[in-house]
Amino acid sequence: MTEILTDDQAARAALAAESAGRYAREADRGGALDPETVKALTAAGYPRHFVPARWGGAEGTFAELTAAMTRVGRACASAAWCGSMFAYSARFSAHLPLAGQEEAWGDSPDVLWVSGLVPSGRAEAVDGGFRLDGRWSYVSGALFADWALLAGPTPGPGAPPPRFFAVPRADFAVEESWDTVGMRATGSHTVVLSDVWVPEHRTVPLAEVVGGVNRTSDRPQHAVPLMSLGGLTCLAPVLGAAAGMVDAYTALVAARRSAPGAGPTPLNDQVLARAAAEVDAATLLAERAALLLDQGRARPFAARNARDTAHAARVLVDTAHELVRTAGTAAQDAAHPLQRHWRDITVAATHAALRFDRIATAYTDAVLAAR
């Protein structure tokens, strides 16, 4: 997807990917991105990608971010995941009232936002705002965050309608709870608040964000319903990791063919050709979804975008399994990128936005309703 990027954007993505790749093995082993990688993601412009221009942001496109995160994911899926989450969390924050946006971005558009999208905790309306406390799980990039955008309260009898609450780093703690088989360096830990006051101007109804209603911007990227995004946020890192697996597998086949006394490699040839085609097909689905978002045509195609991104992820999981299955024992070494990408793809595809079983029902409902 690099043809979508300008020369400057491609160069910045390459620099971010180089840093991500340099630290990928240690990040995987230690369960955290190297701070240099986070700096490289910031320098490449991903935290400011969707930030409104009034604050110095890029107001970039979905296609550009998808292409860039695919490039970074080719080196390290965890780095691409965090880069994507920094960007998309800022996009959600562009729904805040202008006073709240100014508080966050008034000095710089390069603020690192993270988000907890599942309503949790308790919120009590008080004079001028809310008192908020609770725990939000699976907040990717939490240890590097400047701000967190958290949905709450937990739904239940008597609970008020959920809102998003913008909370600065000084007001929340991070409990290091993320210890998984793959995507280890995303640091998707638990954010904890204890009786924090959040002023009204740092909140927005969750329904407005989910529904793509933005009262402060008419830009297409700031008025996209969550359903229309599908799993695009999560898919780009998976695409990148799958492409990284194809790269590693190609090198493996080349080494086998050049070894003394080597014979033909028909099984590996078939697996490689099929995997490359499947990555290309998944990329085309992602490009189509991103293009519709950028054209402001997302709403009529929301169910299809969700279907396509979940289907692409499912295909790439199968591709990854076949690549690692036929790669041989050497590819299982802890230092080999093939097995790291395989673990990352397998874990990333369990995200709710990429679960085809969940998306299929919503898609079928939409198709039947349109008859």
Provide structural commentary.
The protein has about 375 residues and is α+β, with helices and mostly antiparallel strands. It folds into three domains: about 1-110, Acyl-CoA dehydrogenase/oxidase, N-terminal domain (Butyryl-Coa Dehydrogenase, subunit A, domain 1, Orthogonal Bundle); about 115-205, Butyryl-CoA Dehydrogenase, subunit A, domain 2, CATH 2.40.110.10; about 225-370, Butyryl-CoA Dehydrogenase, subunit A, domain 3 (Up-down Bundle). The protein has 13 helices and eight strands. Strands 1-4-5-8 form a four-stranded mixed β-sheet. It has a four-stranded antiparallel β-sheet with strand order 2-3-7-6, with no helix packed on it. Helix 1 (about 5-20) runs parallel beside helix 4, helix 5 (about 75-95) packs antiparallel against helix 9 and helix 10 runs antiparallel to helix 11. The radius of gyration is 21 Å and the shape is globular. The chain starts with 6 loop residues before the first helix and ends with a helix. The mean pLDDT is about 95.
Structure described in brief:
The protein is an alpha+beta fold. 50% of the residues lie in helices and 13% in strands. Helix 9 packs antiparallel against helix 10 and helix 11 runs antiparallel to helix 12.
